[in-house]
């Protein structure tokens, strides 16, 4: 354990986190912080997804046509789009009003990344992008036309790809995204899974021909093992979830898409109708990339709140202390363990906090019980089944209510981060368990800090 400096030991927000209480920190001065100079990587990631759309459309038949829910926002798209619907959630909003005995003003909306094609989680954005970027680099290195989607179905490319390996450490979903896509492109792939990873995710990857290496330790250990195995190896690319600009760029593209989806829905986002986005957070890469993109697109009309399990608030702790990846949740006596396996990360990204930290408008922690209950609420009200991690933010607007008066109007957007790949038996178990917890959701006390 790192010995905490005295000023941190007395910080009331850190003490609240350390006591395992639900804690909210709203940074009331919506920062005018300058955007880091990453707009170019975001734009080139968007162009890369466009280039690969024809390949996706032929390789994954489920993406070959643009689903009706997306057609209005993307009339020119011809299939192969990795995108998810944006939908209002009035039934869930009414139910939460009832459970909390208070109404939030503004409207609850859902971003359905739980239903992203091919790998069923937000990791399809970042993870796919990094694999595609590597594929283009390999193609170009070998004199192939990297910008022609047909290249990636050619025997020549597949022969070359078989001689290259992609390695990643994961709590599950990043491994799924990277593993599935790597295998389809013909790359060898190794996924180092932490103890939190669900068994079915390992089985599914093995079925795709991916090497799955299981670790008894946490995510940090799985990443370390992956990095070490890739270091000396030839023709090997390590996807570093602790420090990857390519993952980040892939996530950020979501904002360009969201802008068009709100426009198609006839919703204007501006200072009078602000967008408050609740992002389930693990290591910070996904929410960090999305936040950058959203701030670039919507400016100060958007506020992003990162939501973490109360035993694993790694980004919250890193940004609040300013120590970023030099501090882990164990340093304040928390376990890092949570039922929200996608968020089971004890030490934050080296890259996101220092770069994106000033753009984050708030942090919140939630106990596992509330996260699980969220699965039940979405099932009962919207008929949507997600994995527990995806629901982390669902109750936050009701929690902050008056304390964040300015942020209780506008659009409250819950970023549902995963779910479509969960096998039926587990899905049914999550729903059953969640439904049993719904009635208790309003009784969760929390500490709110505004500064
Ligand atoms: C990975 C993941 C997140 C958070 O992304 P990070 O980059 O780890 O912060 C949230 N929800 C789900 C379901 C995930 O798999």
TrEMBL record:
Keyword annotations of the record: Lyase, Pyridoxal phosphate
A matching Pfam family: PALP
Needed cofactors: pyridoxal 5'-phosphate
Molecular function GO terms recorded: D-serine ammonia-lyase activity; hydro-lyase activity; pyridoxal phosphate binding
Domain of life: Bacteria
Keyword Ubl conjugation: no
Membrane-crossing residue ranges in chain numbering: none
EC number of the protein: 4.3.1.18
Gene Ontology terms: biological process: D-serine catabolic process; isoleucine biosynthetic process
Residues with PTM N6-(pyridoxal phosphate)lysine: 123
Domain Tryptophan synthase beta chain-like PALP: 102-396
UniProt catalytic activity: D-serine = pyruvate + NH4(+)
Entries under NCBIfam families matching the protein: D_Ser_am_lyase (TIGR02035), PRK02991.1 (NF002823)
Family assignment from sequence similarity: Belongs to the serine/threonine dehydratase family. DsdA subfamily.
HAMAP family linked to this entry: D_Ser_dehydrat (MF_01030)
UniProt name for this protein: Probable D-serine dehydratase
Native organism: Brevibacterium siliguriense
Lineage: Bacteria, Bacillati, Actinomycetota, Actinomycetes, Micrococcales
Gene transcribed to yield this protein: dsdA
């Amino acid at each position: 354990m790192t010995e905490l400096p005295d000023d941190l030991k007395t910080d009331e927000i850190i003490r609240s986190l350390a006591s395992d209480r639900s804690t909210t920190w709203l940074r009331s001065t919506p920062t005018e912080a300058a955007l880091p100079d990453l707009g170019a990587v975001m734009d080139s990631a968007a162009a890369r997804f466009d280039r690969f759309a024809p390949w996706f459309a032929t390789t994954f038949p489920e993406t070959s046509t643009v689903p009706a829910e997306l057609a209005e926002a993307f009339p020119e798209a011809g299939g192969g789009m990795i995108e998810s619907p944006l939908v209002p959630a009035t039934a869930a909003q009414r139910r939460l009003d009832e459970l909390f005995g208070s109404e939030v003003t503004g409207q609850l909306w859902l971003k359905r990344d739980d239903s992203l094609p091919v790998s069923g989680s937000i990791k399809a954005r970042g993870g796919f992008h990094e694999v595609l970027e590597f594929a283009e680099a390999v193609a170009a290195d070998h004199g192939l036309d990297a910008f022609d989607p047909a290249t990636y179905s050619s025997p020549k490319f597949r022969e070359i790809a078989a001689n290259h390996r992609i390695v990643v450490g994961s709590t599950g979903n990043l491994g799924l995204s990277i593993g599935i896509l790597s295998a389809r492109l013909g790359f060898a792939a190794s996924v180092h899974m932490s103890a939190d990873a669900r068994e079915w995710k390992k089985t599914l990857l093995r079925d795709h021909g991916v090497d799955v290496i299981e670790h008894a330790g946490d995510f940090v250990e799985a990443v370390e093992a992956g990095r070490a195995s890739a270091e000396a190896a030839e023709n090997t690319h390590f996807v570093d979830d602790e420090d990857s600009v390519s993952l980040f760029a892939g996530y950020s593209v979501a904002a360009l898409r969201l802008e068009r989806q709100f426009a198609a829905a006839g919703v204007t986002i501006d200072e009078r109708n602000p967008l408050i986005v609740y992002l389930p957070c693990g290591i910070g890469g996904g929410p960090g990339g999305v936040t950058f993109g959203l701030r670039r697109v919507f400016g100060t009309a958007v506020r992003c709140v990162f939501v973490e399990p109360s035993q694993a608030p790694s980004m919250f702790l890193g940004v609040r202390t300013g120590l970023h990846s030099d501090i882990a949740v164990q340093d304040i006596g928390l376990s890092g363990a949570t039922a929200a396996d996608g968020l089971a990360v004890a030490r934050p990204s080296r890259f996101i906090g220092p770069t994106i930290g000033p753009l984050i408008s708030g942090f919140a922690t939630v106990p596992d019980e509330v996260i699980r209950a969220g699965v039940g609420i979405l099932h009962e009200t919207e008929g949507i089944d997600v994995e527990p991690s995806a629901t982390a933010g669902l109750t936050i607007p009701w929690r902050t209510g008056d304390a964040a008066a300015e942020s209780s109007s506008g659009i409250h957007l819950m970023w549902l981060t995963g779910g479509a790949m969960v096998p039926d038996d587990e899905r049914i178990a999550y729903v059953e368990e969640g439904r049993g917890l719904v009635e208790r959701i309003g009784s969760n006390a929390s500490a709110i800090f505004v500064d």
